[in-house]
Structure formats: structure tokens, C-alpha cells
Design goal:
Elements (H helix, E strand, L loop, with lengths): L12 H8 L6 E4 L6 H8 L3 E6 L5 H11 L3 E5 L5 H4 L8 E5 L4 H4 L25 H7 L2 H12 L4 H12 L7 H12 L10 H12 L1 H15 L5 E6 L2 H11 L22 E2 L5 E2 L2 H6 L7 E7 L22
Parallel strand pairs: 1-2, 1-4, 2-3, 4-5
Antiparallel strand pairs: 5-8, 6-8, 7-8
Helix pairs in contact: 7-8, 7-10, 8-9, 11-12
């Protein structure tokens, strides 16, 4: 996620570079290319970078880096959940960086439908294909919609919001971002100084439309398969649900129940990651420069020699919603 005024300066940039240091000469996968902020910084620090993104609108940024850095930069269109496949044949990889969530580039384009601050079609599709947010809002039953808003957005008033949405769409389909935002504000009100009442609901819809939790889990395990012993994975996430998944991926024991002395001891899984960092957050200077960084959390780890695990969501705390595909 990049700053509004300068899309080439992503959040926690210095901290990410420190986690990957030394950077010069390394071959690094930027699995969430966006506007190319991390890729540019890594290239300027002397790395070879493979950028990956599923959003076709990133092409101008791809062209700019290709022209400036030549064969030190390679771009592959696709999802970071397949980063090991996409990076295969491009040489040994030393590190992977992932910036999870929607970029300011996407938020600032009203026609993409990510933001309730700008009127546009209720879309939210990062790949610009498939089911849109409007499809979910106008197609799900009340209970399904409420469950989605609660599980993916941690919206405590999800049931009331869902009821208002279903009532409103009986008059006419909900097709715009501001139209949906007004319905949510009418449902739960707005207190001065609080975040916009649609914040959590828009987050939930975006996550559902883009399958973001599945993508995150698949991407983490893809990085585990790709990186050799000593390789570094750095992940920046933007809300507690994502951060919980990343934390438990690096250290599975954190997600398990407390062991009982009355039960047989579980088999201890060998560690796939070492030197796992604690949560790193933005400092005061960055927060003053970019309020969007307030929820950003960086976690990183270094790959051990143990073989990669089979992909599994068990123990990672991934929200599951009954009745929603």
C-alpha cells in the first residue's frame, strides 16, 4: 500500500529493506508489485527484481522500471499465490516481499470501486474480471451477507447493515460505492471523529471479491516452497485478520491450543522459519506523512533447510463463512 501523494513510496519501506538486508546482488520477488514502490527501492539498492501482479493497470509502472533498470527487472502477470510457479526458471531466489491489501493507486481510481470516498461503480475486482462487489451486495441473502461482513470485516453491526442493504435493493439494485456507503451510514449512523461507518463493510466485500485470505495463505506457502535455506520472506499486512494469519504461518505453535499434561504430547513439527521478527509498525514520522500506514504491520522470517509443508489453513485462523462461495 503506497502513500497518496507518491505512489512509489510504500509503507514501512526502510523496515522492509532492513529485513531483507543486504539487498545488493540478491534476486528478490516482489509478489504484490502495485505501483512498483518496493521494486524501485530494491532495484535502486542493487537487487534483481521479479515483479508479480494480477492487476492489468500496473503496466505503465512496469514499463517505467523496465526502461530504467533493463534486465535487472522482470515482470510476470499473475497472482502472488502462484509466485513459486511464476518465478520458476528465473534463477535462484533470495527473498520474497509481499504487501497485502489494496494499493492507494486502486483506491484513488474511482472507477475501480474500492473506495467509499469517491463515487464509482461497486466493483472492487483487482484482476478486473469475475464476480464484483455489486454481485455480492445484490445477490446474497441477508444472513449470508451479514456473515460475510462480520467474518471478513469484523463488523459488529453486520446484521443490521445487511438488513438495510436487502431492503434498499428491493427498490433498485445497489450499483455505486457512494450509494452503498450511504445505506451503511443510514443503518448504523456516524459519530464525529470515528472512522467512516462503511470502512469495515467495504473491507469485507473487497476481501471476498478477491479471495484475499485464500490468496494470502497460498502465497505464504508458495514462498516457503520457493525460498532456499537462508532465504527471507517479508510480509506487510494491513489489518488484524491478515496479521494473525502471517503470525501463525511463521510460528504455527502460536495458533495451537495449550498442551495438557494429561494428554499424550503432540509431535513437534520441525521449524520452517527462523529469526522470525516481532510485529514492526510505522513510526510517528511515517504516520504523519501517510495516515494509511497506521494499521500496517511487518513480519519477516528466514527459511530453514526443512522441506516445505503441504498447504493447509488449519491453525492459521482464516475466517470461514458458511453459505458464501
Amino acid at each position: 500500500m503506497e502513500t497518496p501523494g507518491g505512489p512509489h513510496v510504500p509503507v514501512l519501506l526502510d523496515e522492509v529493506l532492513a529485513a531483507l538486508a543486504p539487498v545488493a546482488g540478491k534476486r528478490i520477488v516482489d509478489g504484490t508489485f502495485g505501483a512498483g514502490g518496493y521494486s524501485r527501492a530494491l532495484l535502486e539498492a542493487g537487487a534483481h527484481v521479479i515483479g508479480i501482479d494480477r492487476d492489468p493497470s500496473v503496466q505503465p509502472h512496469v514499463a517505467a522500471l523496465s526502461a530504467e533498470f533493463g534486465d535487472r527487472f522482470t515482470f510476470v502477470q499473475g497472482t502472488f499465490s502462484e509466485l513459486d510457479t511464476l518465478a520458476s526458471g528465473l534463477g535462484p531466489i533470495d527473498a520474497v516481499v509481499l504487501d497485502i491489501g489494496v494499493s492507494s493507486m486502486q483506491l484513488d481510481q474511482a472507477e475501480r470501486g474500492f473506495s467509499f470516498m469517491r463515487d464509482g461503480p461497486l466493483d472492487m475486482r483487482m484482476s478486473q474480471s469475475g464476480e464484483s462487489a455489486a454481485d455480492l451486495v445484490n445477490g446474497l441473502e441477508t444472513e449470508e451477507l451479514a456473515n460475510l461482513l462480520y467474518a471478513f470485516g469484523e463488523e459488529r453491526k453486520s446484521r443490521r447493515i445487511a438488513q438495510f442493504i436487502v431492503a434498499a435493493r428491493e427498490t433498485a439494485p445497489i450499483t455505486t460505492t457512494l450509494g452503498l456507503a450511504r445505506i451503511i451510514e443510514k443503518a448504523i449512523g456516524r459519530k464525529p471523529g470515528d472512522a467512516h461507518p462503511a470502512t469495515r463493510s467495504f473491507q469485507a466485500l473487497r476481501i471476498a471479491v478477491n479471495g484475499e485470505f485464500d490468496q494470502l495463505v497460498e502465497g505464504l506457502f508458495a514462498a516457503e516452497r520457493l525460498l532456499p535455506e537462508g532465504g527471507t520472506l517479508a510480509v506487510v499486512s494491513f489489518h488484524s485478520l491478515e496479521d494473525r494469519i502471517v503470525k501463525r504461518f511463521f510460528d504455527p505453535d502460536k495458533g495451537g491450543p495449550a498442551a495438557s499434561r494429561h494428554l499424550p504430547q503432540a509431535v513437534v513439527e520441525p521449524l520452517r522459519w527462523q529469526r522470525v521478527s516481532k510485529a514492526v509498525k510505522s513510526g510517528e514520522a511515517e504516520l504523519a506523512r501517510n495516515p494509511r500506514a497506521r494499521s500496517a504491520v511487518l513480519r519477516s522470517g528466514v527459511r530453514t533447510a526443512e522441506p516445505a509443508r503441504t498447504v493447509s489453513m488449519q491453525g492459521l485462523g482464516v475466517p470461514q463463512i458458511r453459505g458464501v462461495a
